[in-house]
Write a structure and sequence with these properties.
single chain, alpha/beta, Rossmann fold, SH3 type barrels, six-stranded antiparallel beta barrel, five-stranded parallel sheet, 17 strands, about 25% helix, globular
Length: about 350
Amino acid sequence: MNKVVVGLSGGVDSSVAAAILHHQGYEVVGLTLWLMKGKGQCCSEGMVDAAKICEHLDIPHHIVDSRDVFQANIVDYLVAGYSDGITPLPCSQCNKSVKFGPMVSYAREKLGIDKIATGHYARISYDADRDRYQLRRAVDLNKDQSYFLYDLTQDLLAASVFPLGETHKTETRQIAAQFGLNTADKPESMDLCLVESNGSMRAFLDKYIAPQKGNIVDESGKVLGQHDGIHHYTIGQRKGIGIAAPQALYVIGLDAVNNRVIVGDRNSADRTECTVARVNWVSLAQPSAPIRAEVQIRYRSSAVPVTVIPLSGDGQDAHSTRVKLVFDEPQFSITPGQAAVWYDGDILLGGGIIERQN
């Protein structure tokens, strides 16, 4: 019998993934990572719901205390990033370093199982010509989560199964009800886990970063007002700047060295290029020449045409590489710290962290 370890967060998606595989005849083992205390999935409340799912399906349930790993890889990472004037994207970092990597290690070393599964909406295929696993968008484009999975290695993709990749969210709810799962009507988790647990990102950051007053300036350096910490701002932000002006103002830069928030009009936030670091090439090997693709510079943005230009790197470590993205048309609020992920149709080619606007 095929064996698989299913990551259970306590939400409907992971619950249905476990139920589908169990129904298909897999020997399923539930695994929940204890990331932090509090409300929501991945927290104390999620562990209780995950345990109920395993009891309902009559499958084993393992809980791994991953709080120290989460603190080091996510909390400390976020605090350092916001302190430096960038807006980190924790989810992709969490998927590789906190979830998939440790889950695969636990499954192999503790349980002797080679496969893991999650409730992510994405698909994996194998390209025999390139001898590479490919990451693809989900069938349900409104729920597609491939953007957050761009950092998965070939080893992790080979070990992973996404049972919901061909499923629409409405079908997932129906399947949950058919299996009698207690999560069938559980509300969606709409925010980052840290936001859910702390009430807001501002409240979370204020626990770790002390207020530090500084100036809000325009592009010429003219002081327009004051702020109480650059970590309260992000590129492209319009609301909450606190400055009366004849035209709408947007945050167009964060100067951590001088503790300044730089603002300008809508057009000032447009850029035609950016540099991306810590690049992971997924569905094809690192190219030596520019390629054409479509790129997303945030999760909910549309993919837009781009030229991806490889920059110098030693080529040995995927995360030593950088690329320059040249957009066909200027893009609004390119935000350092967020992920840029490029595709060929539904195939995710690669991605990395936006290092700077050009």
